[in-house]
């Protein structure tokens, strides 16, 4: 796939080099002149592209637990921690910089009960009973680490590879590298479980230095999930249609006088795409056709799990329709951040998250979608074994857990380890770059070959670092 | 970019051989070699630490080596540092124990057999470019065109008869060499629209168009150029391009994205600098070292706001890490903006493609190693100062009791902060916080100031949140009363100055303990002797030394980089397409002699941007038509095929309006645009020009963002130009555009019963700068007739009429002719 070595410097270049046809319905009333369209063949930057190698995953669903869930209270049991409860961190553990700086706080034992589940005997705490039923599909990666000690840097790095702002989000890289299978829907979709702004706001799904066409689209709540998708009611369909007719005529005349300016076709086409999106998106996000059984599977029929359950179900519907990258923020606005009262906080969040996630995995599996969908679960970091404010835990980017399922990932087992207290990742340490390289690899993308030329330099999604952790699929 | 590129390209047959070979070798590597490296070396030479600049976790890293040179030379174990070190020949590695014989032999054998590394050996190079030898600058490097001092070339003779300025002769020569020809001059409607958008970012008004089109004087065009260059709108437009380059924003970025309520003073400084046509040399010097070079001048102090544009995290306990990021950010942007050299890669290693050394990066950083960041009162005049002080004194008297009461409530809490000062920070920072000021080194002082800035914000400023519930109620009541008394707005500016005569030590990170401080110096490849900054009581003189060097008339990069940016502003693409990268990764200039000629002209005419603008826009090449100009020439050459990107400029390129132009043009055409110049920024729903709307890093305005506005986070040399359904939906269904259309309609809709064609003509003239053709007018009237019917229902209503006209105007605002400039 040499397409990524050279990014065309001009639109014109893109249009001349591109060969992809329209496909689908040509709205001749909008486009006007078919002959012209056929000749110009503007390339869609989001047209599906061939991966570097055979892809295991066609799509990714990234369940982002924003704020940092406590790995040691969920998936990485530490018996020693309970033994040392109330004591200082032993000197043999390398000290860390704490975000809140409660430097001498004692260790806090874990109050959860852990049990082994599935054929592989994976450990899950009693906070996630439903996810535990998917044990054999889940790979628990316990040795993740990253550089951001605060939420902003952490969320930024988990999304873009860098704790500093300015780089494209992973979903943007994937959209750039692979395009989308369904151009009538956005390639990269973001949802959040509550209206509080995700830390860093929309730049988490921004395209950074890449063109805006690769940025994520946030599906909002309510009647109009895609902003500006619908004709305003005050305008009405008939007026809108006539207006579009007239607009098409204006643009057509303008373009006819400028036969060498093929980029003008791209803009005409953007209206066509917008129109097709108007037609297709409402159906994609309409859950009315789902059975009560399916809704119940996701917990969409219960108050605590309804919101996230519906979003997980939406994620499945989008993936089914060829959307490449779906990111769901759970606990948007750092809700998982438990500097105090961790028990209360995590109990409620787990309750609202656990069943929907399990439902998603089960539903993807029975629909045969799990084989081609990579599901990732995790936050920007984990939490410290040391307490904070008595009953909370501080941020822990030095060692934390992420879960992966689907796309050939061998579930039912844990990978990598943290130290005996869960503070530092020790064995098979996987930096965010390694995680990104791994996910890209599953999508058929070589992280070192996916190149976007920016300011003369070859930029890569993992800042030229990282290795795919192939044992996840090789076993 | 440690693993960026493999050092060799292997021919296909060899590649196959190697792949087969690699299987056996891989096995040996995986089973015997990798475990030795992982167990014994990786802790200090891996992803976490790179002692001596060395990593051992990839073959490339070993081949590149660290400070002592390559760690392995495949096939030559005795010459390989890795093998020598484990044998304790010279270096001793691992430092505390020697590896057993068996492991030493294994490593030696592995190197002797070619040091195969997993499958990596079989991978061809990522980009096909050779890796540079670390630490070396060669004659070839020095010979790169952009590193030569520009000399004024002879103006070619080609193009006589067509040429209006020397620029045209250079263009004509290239066109002639390619057997291409130029396009005819564009018509006057096109010219005034193009020129007005280019110089001021706005569409021309109908009277402006009429005046120009009907001006029969021979210098009508030149007069138009003069008028536009003198317009205050010129500075607003040109400033935006510079603000992109310096990643200007009015918020901190990071989680809170805290507002920077005083940042606008720097923006106003830039607008004014362009309007006043301040020489670019002076402009650069003020931003980099205004405090050192022009200490008495308020503008020059505000200009140092350039050094304050980095993102900032108010609650970052890793104070040293944040300080490093700030220093790196200033270094990267300075290299991009002023030198047109991408130096970021050299932060971690000698640049792999450009002749930029890691040492160069830190030598550049060293110029900024004395800085101290302040928010200071900057008065435009003595009178302004007196006035402010008088008002402040009044305010102080009025609030004396209230302040005393509030302070009394807060004082115990502040005392608590004093007592526990910094105990939530890493030990290193705590130690610094408790040192006596005189004992702090400059580097420690910088960390002290950064930590105290955070403690001020987090602990002192928010102390009232720690009051008991009752006391808080009491406090809030008093505070409300206090806030009701208007405080005179302090003319605060975000500025930079130096701590004093001494700078902090700059060392290359990850190096050995006894690292030698890196002194200020210019990139080695440029061949200038390091400066000897003249320290004064208040400053190191370092930034001044850099600024003076940068603005030498014979500087190889400074003038070229800036004239190229100005050129890009008119043609969409610079003579060098990569406007912030004149290094070997950038593109070579399409017209090198023209670039040099412009650079010479720039420096000789006092670095006047207006002079360059005038030269460009009065040239024939700029005045060419874009439409209908791609005809095959007499010589049988089709410009569309010979020069698809139109880099040779055989016609003008059609360009889409950029984000701010789209927004400003809609407001201008609808008649809503307010020309208030400068001052604090306003939200995007206010009808001020986009350059005055608030720029928040985390929440960009959706309209501006969808049209590819700069993000204010990293230096943006050139905007992307995308065409997306999101834009279409925003313009079609977004409430903003609909509101513009309503206002536009109200402006052009004739009174009932009056002549519809007059309204259509007015709308066309506002939106497109021309009148409609008869056919277009008929189409519009027909559309209006139908739409009135649809919008009114059975009988025509005034409301229906208004809606129909709104739809007509809305269609114009959505049309390509409105959004593109010919």
The fold-level CATH name of chain A is Alkaline Phosphatase, subunit A
How many whole angstroms does the radius of gyration of chain A measure? 24 Å
Total separate domains of chain B: 5
- Overall residue-averaged pLDDT value of chain A: 87
* Biggest sheet features of chain B: 2 strands, antiparallel
The largest beta-sheet of chain B arranges its strands as: 1-2
Features:
heterodimer; A: 475 residues; alpha/beta; Alkaline Phosphatase, subunit A; 9-stranded mixed β-sheet; B: 822 residues; mainly alpha; 5 domains
Topology overview:
The complex is a heterodimer of chains A (475) and B (822).
Chain A (H helix, E strand, L loop, with lengths): L10 H7 L10 H4 L2 H7 L18 E7 L13 H5 L30 E4 L4 E4 L3 H4 L5 E8 L5 H10 L9 H9 L9 E5 L24 E2 L18 H20 L6 H22 L7 H6 L5 H18 L4 E6 L11 H25 L6 E6 L3 E7 L3 E5 L3 E6 L7 E3 L1 E2 L6 E3 L2 E2 H11 L9 E3 L2 E3 L11 H4 L1
Helix pairs in contact in A: 11-12
Chain B lengths: L11 H29 L18 H6 L16 H6 L14 H12 L26 H4 L23 H12 L10 H13 L5 H9 L5 H11 L1 H14 L18 H12 L4 H14 L4 H6 L15 H21 L18 H9 L4 E7 L4 H38 L7 H8 L7 H19 L8 H16 L7 E7 L43 H9 L7 H14 L20 H13 L4 H9 L21 H4 L12 E2 L2 H12 L31 H5 L18 H9 L1 H14 L7 H13 L5 H19 L5 H17 L1 H4 E2 L1
Antiparallel strand pairs in B: 1-2, 3-4
Structure report:
The complex is a heterodimer of chains A (475) and B (822). Chain A has 14 helices and 17 strands. By secondary structure, chain A is of the alpha/beta class. Chain A has a single domain, classed as Alkaline Phosphatase, subunit A (3-Layer(aba) Sandwich), CATH 3.40.720.10. In chain A, strand 13 and strand 14 form a beta hairpin. Chain A starts with 10 loop residues before the first helix and ends with a helix. The N terminus of chain A is likely disordered. Chain B has 822 residues and is mainly alpha-helical. Chain B contains 32 helices and four strands. Chain B is globular. The two termini of chain B are 42 Å apart.
